[in-house]
Amino acid sequence: MSNTIRVTVWNENRHEQTNEQVRRIYPEGIHHAIAVPLRQEQFEVRTATLDEPEHGLPEEVLNTTDVLIWWGHQAHDEVSDETVERVQKRVLEGMGLIVLHSGHFSKIFKKLMGTTCDLKWREANEKERLWVVNPAHPIVQGIDQYIELESEEMYGEFFDIPQPEELIFVSWFEGGEVFRSGCTYTRGRGKVFYFRPGHETYPTYYHPEILKVISNAVRWAAPVNGPSLVFGNAKPLEVIKNKVETVENK
Amino acid sequence: MSNTIRVTVWNENRHEQTNEQVRRIYPEGIHHAIAVPLRQEQFEVRTATLDEPEHGLPEEVLNTTDVLIWWGHQAHDEVSDETVERVQKRVLEGMGLIVLHSGHFSKIFKKLMGTTCDLKWREANEKERLWVVNPAHPIVQGIDQYIELESEEMYGEFFDIPQPEELIFVSWFEGGEVFRSGCTYTRGRGKVFYFRPGHETYPTYYHPEILKVISNAVRWAAPVNGPSLVFGNAKPLEVIKNKVETVENK
Amino acid sequence: MSNTIRVTVWNENRHEQTNEQVRRIYPEGIHHAIAVPLRQEQFEVRTATLDEPEHGLPEEVLNTTDVLIWWGHQAHDEVSDETVERVQKRVLEGMGLIVLHSGHFSKIFKKLMGTTCDLKWREANEKERLWVVNPAHPIVQGIDQYIELESEEMYGEFFDIPQPEELIFVSWFEGGEVFRSGCTYTRGRGKVFYFRPGHETYPTYYHPEILKVISNAVRWAAPVNGPSLVFGNAKPLEVIKNKVETVENK
Amino acid sequence: MSNTIRVTVWNENRHEQTNEQVRRIYPEGIHHAIAVPLRQEQFEVRTATLDEPEHGLPEEVLNTTDVLIWWGHQAHDEVSDETVERVQKRVLEGMGLIVLHSGHFSKIFKKLMGTTCDLKWREANEKERLWVVNPAHPIVQGIDQYIELESEEMYGEFFDIPQPEELIFVSWFEGGEVFRSGCTYTRGRGKVFYFRPGHETYPTYYHPEILKVISNAVRWAAPVNGPSLVFGNAKPLEVIKNKVETVENK
């Protein structure tokens, strides 16, 4: 059995078909731009997109995926509920999930968070600076004090998510807002990382430090061979003095 | 405008109809047993049950509820999805939610947690001892080092919930298990408290310290008049140097 | 016995003696500016300063203080270790502690955090905007989406503190930095709130929303009458089958 | 440069000199028992003990240590304050620290926690069962649902530590107590893991799952090459409109 981490990069892949500006930046799709550098690491990388059968995520793909990366934006509702439930089940079983940018509004992220995942936004080509607030975390391996992006969409607080278990990045925006832009969660045996940057009209997924964060996150989110989850009726491990009469006689 | 906290105690109220042992302990229902002592505090208390129209939780009730207490067990699936969504919406807007015992498997709790909320269990009349692990928390006001229950159903780890924001109680069980039995979360503007004890065949909701925890939790979970949540497209608060050309020329 | 919260506002009170600009803003000292509005709430408020005997914090003052507010800057080292230990002991017993601005470098805050509590700073009269990231928290009662301060000293990340238990505010600074500017912790039975704003050369402690946050924090940090802390050798609560021979025979 | 993790196992090594029972179990010292299996992993392992010069932890040793393991009990006070400060400094710079059992009362652990780190205890050869409550964590790689120790010293709540960032294990004790027995923290760039088991009169450090947890923890706690920590006066990254007059004219 190999130890290679198996990554599936999922992309909605719609803007690339309809928007000339996006196509120029990502001619083979955002999924391709993300997959190429991950292949240069020691990962085994596949891609999947919305318009493939079962959105490219049939059971056999999910069952052989260690970490799933998710980018979606305008067609969240077209992802079938069955697929979302299949992905959730796999996350709870241990598959890592990295949710990028507008994926904050995907069905799967909202389902795992239990909140609206809503936020403020603005498309104004403004500067973003992602400050590291957790320098001990493996996700910031090789990253400097901050990552600067000359032009990005703004996402601003309040970001309606549960309090992150670990807050890794906080973004500064030129227009006056801040954002918790790198957040980790565990759900069951699975790890979830939300990472903010990556609006489709900017070349964010060519930025070396953004790619470094994503590949660090893949390693961090890969499944751990911990205890299997056992639920349901359980025999006692110790002798219990029967106290049925206590209730009966009350 | 009054500052009285308005509590609604929701109970499935089915065991009480069909199980003689339960009826003897809670002749007017678990909701009644919980509501009576809360009325002796300064709360305004209503009850609601599954078989009432709209499960007793129409919009006008939820809109005038500050804290909702939830007990359910065998009929979780009979709670309509519309009701669950209405409750979730109100929690995110600020309504407190206290989920008791087998409510861990209610639709609303699972929806707010994003996990299966599954666990181990055993009905063996065994002793439970709830140890306080957060003595600074308002929920343990007036509580001693531990609460002892002579006979309870066992719930054991792994409890498939997101890591609690605050862990208040950890239970010891006679049969050899432990359980994170008092857990807090925030979801949007709302606070959620899960509290383990209260199997229907035991007189747990007459225990003075259990009632004390519930009334403390009501005060803790009552809505805070914090900022309203503003989402969506946002005008800049500061001047942004327009950088449209950066992208265009790439 | 009264339920009035007893607050002691501690101030180094040195800048006010030596810096004309500071004296003009706070002619009776920063402690006075903070104490006056707190007295208008239902708190019982005393002040204490560095140059008083025992720094104004003898045992009888601490023992009758529910919440201690701390402002210090240039003379942290002049606070005696005995005083710091007395304050720490009282916090662990339940006294609330609110540490303001440059108090991040006080002996007591560093002792309770276990880290350097170091940060970046700049005095450039720049704009600060404190965004609420936890709208459910009692500390933001009555506060809007953000608090704007026209001129403040900048504090920037990385702020070397343990990950806050609750992150309440994140600051945006005109010069390009962000800062976790409202952070809660529990230590023993005591609650700690760090709140960033309040450089001595700005009239920050006259700002109504800053004062509102401080008075909210006083209520939040007031001691809870939870279990007393019992440590040391403990008799078993259950019968233990003696297994001395297991070790002996190994 | 090698990627081998460099571990230093520190042991007080006093019980082994004076207590026949301990010597029989750990004839070459607890440090030796822990070091041997770690050497069989890919770690570079040294040991150090209290009675060596500078307690075996001079600057050159600490500077070449990636993860320090700490066992101490009866002679915590004999560890010099200089050594404690040196260790703390190295942790904040990135060195991992694993604190075992009675090390909860070591100077270094108390300094990093900011609390008394006190607890309940009992030596009664009783059964301990460590339940995994975070099955996604790398520290439980290869571990089953729980670890059972036939005979151990009891440690009971309330354990006076800051709320763990991640709670990994909760112990059940035969005598009726529970304990948060696997807890993680970050301090600066360093990671800290407290792991409860290991009283000197029991062969706990020969138990394969206990050793597995320790070696997992070494990997988890090893330094991450994240951003270096930059503190102090910082030049603005963006233009600040000078507002000196605002304050001057007040």
In CATH terms, the superfamily of the domain at 6-117 and 183-226 in chain A is: Class I glutamine amidotransferase (GATase) domain
The portion of residues forming beta strands of chain A comes to 25-35%
Question: Using DSSP, what is the number of strands of chain A?
Answer: 10
Radius of gyration of CA atoms of chain A, rounded to a whole number: 20 Å
Anisotropy-based shape of chain A:
globular
Please give the largest β-sheet of chain A.
Answer: 9 strands, mixed
Strand order of the largest sheet of chain A: 2-1-3-4-9-8-7-5-6
Given helix and strand content, the structural type of chain A is alpha/beta
Q: What portion of residues of chain A is helical?
A: 25-40%
CATH class of the domain at 6-117 and 183-226 in chain A: Alpha Beta
Number of helical segments of chain A?
8
The arrangement of helices and strands of chain A along the chain is EHHHEHEHEHEEEEEHEH
Per CATH, the architecture of the domain at 6-117 and 183-226 in chain A is 3-Layer(aba) Sandwich
| Oligomer class | homotetramer
Using the coordinates shown, work out and report the CATH topology of the domain at 6-117 and 183-226 in chain A.
Rossmann fold
Poorly predicted spans of chain A: 244-250
Largest interface: C-D, 60 and 59 residues
